[in-house]
Amino acid sequence: MLGVLIFASTGGEIAITLGMKTIGEPKRLRPKELAVFLLRALRNGWFWTGVPLMALSFYALLVLLSWDPISFVIPASALNYVVGTLGAKFILREQVTAARWAGVLMVCAGVALVAAG
Amino acid sequence: MNRDLRLRIKTLVMILAMVVCANVGDLLLKRGMNQIGAVPVSLVGVTHAFALTVTNGTIWIGILFLSGFMFSYMTVLSWADYSYVMPAGAFGYALLTLLAVVFLHESVSPRRWIGVALICLGVLLVGQTRPSTTTVAVSEAAD
Asked: Number of structural domains, chain A?
């Protein structure tokens, strides 16, 4: 179930990012332009690839939370940060510099420690 | 330089909105699922739990906050790197710990403080990098 959670949430977020990058950013952050932006997102194929994956990860999270204490679930899902960064580098072609990797690893360890209490 | 600063501030504001909505949403979900109880792993058990989930008010308010999270998340990802937004969003865990200490007077273990320190350092490190490194987003930001 944890594997499902990590795969679905990372896959979903990467698909959403691809979708948002295709649409491009709203020119101004005004209500009208944000509404147009949202409508364009709703017509995007990548967005609709990401949504079912995120829904799956959401349901996997609900089930995990009902089985295990949050202090296990969140540290374990901290692995998301590493998997997600690999996805960003190889799928989204983002430049993950050494500084960013170091930051991601610190955040990952930090999240695990915080949630383990 | 000015454009770079504007990009950073815009990204920071959206990440803060994300963090607040996500934390409030998660807390409400946890409370709602506690009301429902442990979900048994069987078709009947899961179906029954699903029915309870969609009729629970706390869960729905949680979902509303998570929709706010989703919208700010989608917006920030239209210009910023996923590998920038994702670790920066972890700042929420550090924030939760500080809020617990200040408002709930909870005692926090040394291990958890080390975690908070690591998250803050990690977020600072990621924050040093350029928020947007892909060509599409760079040309968009130049507008």
From this structure: 1
